[in-house]
Amino acid sequence: MKRLLLLLPLLLLASGLSSCSRQVKAKHPVSYSFKSGRTAMLKDGLAYAPRNAPMAVKRAIAAGNRLQNKPYKWGGGHAKHLDSGYDCSGTVSYVLRESGLMKGSMPSKGYFSYGNKGEGDWITVYVRNGHVFMTVAGLRLDTGGPGGRSGPRWKPQTRAGAGHVMRHPSGL
């Protein structure tokens, strides 16, 4: 009986009943549509937070703005907080750290267990094997998409959400 109890977590993992299978998966494309007071405004490559956004959201947008001219750099943002370039998970880690919503940094797969399940009201992290991006006040911050890798950029273009798990910081 003891052996069976010790093997149960392994059996659940092998059968696909792990915590990842209980994740909330995105079913719709991630798209941006400006809504006054609810979404960030994008002008000349910079995002502007709604006036009524929580302070953590305003800090997240300011952090994302600081990354706008940085190139894509594999591993960027992990060994050094202030780096010369950022990869996908380095970008998300930087923004969440700067907004006070996380300590340290994580590789993309670490975001499968970040925060709470599902879409957030203000911030949503989208994660799949090998990639992570986020929306802040409805505006996508991503290093990937059509055309390949770019540095961290605010992207109003629609991106497929299928295959991504949604997570969000508690309360946001």
Automatic annotation (TrEMBL):
Residue numbers spanned by region Disordered: 144-172
Signal peptide boundaries: 1-26
High-level lineage: Bacteria, Pseudomonadati, Verrucomicrobiota, Verrucomicrobiia, Verrucomicrobiales
InterPro entries from the UniProt entry: Papain-like_cys_pep_sf
UniProtKB keywords: Signal
TM region(s), chain numbering: none
Protein name stated in the entry: C40 family peptidase
UniProt key word Transferase: no
Keyword Signal: yes
